[in-house]
Structures are given as structure tokens and as C-alpha cells.
Design brief:
The protein is of the alpha/beta class and about 230 residues long. It has one domain: Alpha-Beta Complex (Spore Coat Polysaccharide Biosynthesis Protein SpsA, Chain A). It is about 25% helix and about 25% strand. It has a 7-stranded mixed sheet, with helices on both faces. Strands 5-11 form a two-stranded antiparallel ribbon. Strands 7-8 form a two-stranded antiparallel ribbon. Helix 1 links the parallel strand 1 and strand 2. The two termini are about 25 Å apart. The mean pLDDT is about 95.
Length: about 230
């Protein structure tokens, strides 16, 4: 399965750490975040990879050129940020009419991707996508999802003060080739995946809840928490 790793963000909340280092390359207990992604995905049999760049793109390119996974990686530079859906739409050909992974690669995730792919392959009939989810202690800061007894999304609550629950969207998706085709034909004008795509497919999104580490490392405090974890 092919994977698009979204890695072009500015990392403004993580400054000054990201003044000279792109967010996707900040070290987590040693290795850069992007290396952790590539190692874990490859171990699960996932690849090749497409990585988008923008901020400090030369440093990401240099990392890829020196990576053990170089031959499995394509890099696409965005002179102007396209948005999460915009990047997906511009690169739909990368998936070659197959199901594929869309990953916010500036998060730190230690999930079992083999199990995630298996859950997607066994998703309820009619579901077009599988979303990774996790339980959060701070639901008002996350996109919270409501699910039915089958684990299918029936409601979204994007960073509201008192959401009904704490099951959060992990911003990691396996998208069916059927949905990729729908996006190509009917939604090729959108830019943001969370706000302009997900809500349109309520009741067609299966969820896979994990108990493994999945952290937003976007602030100095959260970044420190990630580095203090004992894996």
C-alpha cells in the first residue's frame, strides 16, 4: 500500500525548535520524526512513499537523499502550500487506482500499521475510508468523532468546548480507491481534508481505535512529552 506523508507544514507553534529544522525532522529520542515514520511503515510492508515539502524543503530533500529508504521515496515540492486535500488531489496518480494511506507526518505515532490495514480490509460494507482514532485527555483541543456500534462515524465535533466523548481523529487515514475517484471527480476544488472532505462522508467512514502512542508534537510542551516517553 502506498502512503502520502504530509510534511510541508511551517511548524510555527513549535518555534524556536523549528526555526532551522522542519517539523517533520525534529528528533524524537534520537532519530528524526520522518525516519521513525519510514521505518515503522516499511516494517509493516507499506510503501512506496510520497512526501510533500515546502518549509525548509532543502533539508527534507537532503534527508531523503541520505535515507536508507531513498529508492522508495518521491518528493513533491509546493511553492505555495496546497492544503491537506489540495496535496492529495494534485498527487492522486501516485496511488495508481489502489487504496492508499494519507498521513499527517508531523505527529508521533507508534501504532501497528499491519493491524490498521487489516481493519480497513475488513471494514463494514459501504465504508469508503478507515480513520485511526485514539482516546484523548483533552477532547476540546481535538477533532472528536461519534461512532455507532459498528465503529462507523455518525458525528464530528471539531475542537468544540464540550464535545460528547473523547474519541479523537488521529489524522491517519486509509482511503479506498473508490473514494479517491470520488474526490477526483467531485471534490477536486477543496483544500482541507478535515473540514471539506470528512464531513461529507459521515456514515461511510470506519474507525480503528488504538491504545498505542499517537501524539501531536506541535508545541514545545508536547514535543518534550514525546521525548520523555519510554518506548
Amino acid at each position: 500500500m502506498r502512503a502520502l506523508l504530509l510534511a510541508a507544514g511551517l511548524g510555527t507553534r513549535l518555534r524556536p525548535i523549528t526555526n532551522n529544522t522542519p517539523k517533520c525532522l525534529v528528533p524524537i529520542n534520537g532519530p528524526p520524526l520522518l525516519q521513525i515514520w519510514l521505518e515503522r511503515l516499511t516494517a509493516a510492508g507499506i510503501g512506496p512513499f510520497l512526501i510533500n515539502t515546502h518549509y525548509l524543503a532543502d533539508k527534507v530533500t537532503a534527508f531523503v537523499e541520505e535515507s536508507l529508504f531513498q529508492k522508495k521515496i518521491q518528493v513533491t515540492f509546493e511553492d505555495n502550500l496546497l492544503g491537506t486535500a489540495g496535496t492529495l488531489i494534485r498527487n492522486l496518480d501516485f496511488f495508481q487506482d489502489e487504496d492508499g494511506l494519507l498521513i499527517h507526518a508531523d505527529n508521533y505515532c507508534l501504532a501497528d500499521f499491519t493491524a490498521f490495514e487489516r481493519a480497513h480490509n475488513n471494514r463494514p460494507l459501504g465504508c469508503l475510508m478507515t480513520m485511526m482514532t485514539f482516546r484523548t485527555d483533552d477532547p476540546s483541543s481535538c477533532g472528536i468523532v461519534e461512532v455507532d456500534e459498528s465503529g462507523v462515524v455518525v458525528g464530528f465535533h471539531e475542537k468544540v468546548e464540550h464535545p460528547p466523548g473523547n474519541l479523537a481523529n488521529g489524522a491517519i487515514y486509509i482511503i479506498s480507491h473508490e473514494l479517491l475517484k470520488i474526490i477526483e471527480t467531485d471534490l477536486n476544488y477543496v483544500t482541507d481534508f478535515s473540514t471539506e472532505v470528512l464531513h461529507r462522508f459521515k456514515e461511510y467512514i470506519f474507525t480503528y481505535e488504538i491504545s498505542d502512542v499517537l501524539l501531536d508534537v506541535g508545541t514545545p510542551e508536547r514535543y518534550e512529552n514525546a521525548n520523555n516517553l519510554k518506548n
